[in-house]
# Entry
Amino acid sequence: MSGNPDDERLEKLRQEKMQELQNRAEGQGGQQQGNEAAQEAAREQAEAQQDALLKQYLTDGARQRLNAVEMSKPDFAEKVKQQLVALAQSGRIQDRIDEDQMKDLLRELRPDSKSFDIRRR
# Structure
């Protein structure tokens, strides 16, 4: 993953943002602000790790499809991302996931439709 100029630039921006949050927490001096800044930094770091894993294991087409789903159904997309990260961390993803595989995965993880049948007697 290293060597890509975009990845290096993103990592540098993340480090600068974390430093800014830490400086802001220290400048305000309160324990509460320090905890909030630490939680914010931890949340951003977790998101960065999740994005890095998704970038590593998804093709461009699969990422675009996931982004499209995220625009319309952010909660569902977050669940899918968590599932993908869990699969990647457990070593169950052998190769990169392409767009067709992403379609299948989205179909499998889609919540049951809330439709109902009306029967006449």
Summary: The chain has two domains: 1-44, 58-89+97-105. The chain is about 75% helix and 0% strand. Helices lie at 5-28, 31-57, 60-72, 74-89, 99-109.
